[in-house]
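Input/output pair, single chain:
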Amino acid sequence: MDRSIVSDLRDVPQFVDVVSERIWREWWFQQGSTQAEIRARVEESLDARLIPFTLVAHREGVFVGTASVIENDFATRPRYGPWVAAVFVEPERRGQGFGTALVTAATETGFLIGADRLYLCAAPVNAPFYERRGWRLTEADVEGLSIYEKSG
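Output:
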């Protein structure tokens, strides 16, 4: 990934629009959320709080992918948190290490700011990606997804 960078969104706010749009299209469009609602959530990552934060992978100034750490990504599981969430890599960039870089950076940063454990939810098709990176299954088939955890 030469000349590729993973940055905190606070350092590259020019990517707010594309991050918001990709997250909205990937997960929220079908559920009836508006792009403005998702943008407002993404913009929460721009303030001085530790969580939420959003990371952006970019190459030569072009958006490649994103990942966030948020307080809760699964309302029916409030005992879990914080969460690595909204991991997205542009389809044409998948399989090139960007997802690994984003998840690693999100996890390391989450532990660095004080989380003892992080969680994520994954569709069955994506589960092997996380398992290969040391995430352990916590709960299977929760509304069609699996919940994983990683300790710091």
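Helices lie at 16-28, 35-43, 98-112, 127-131. The radius of gyration is 15 Å.
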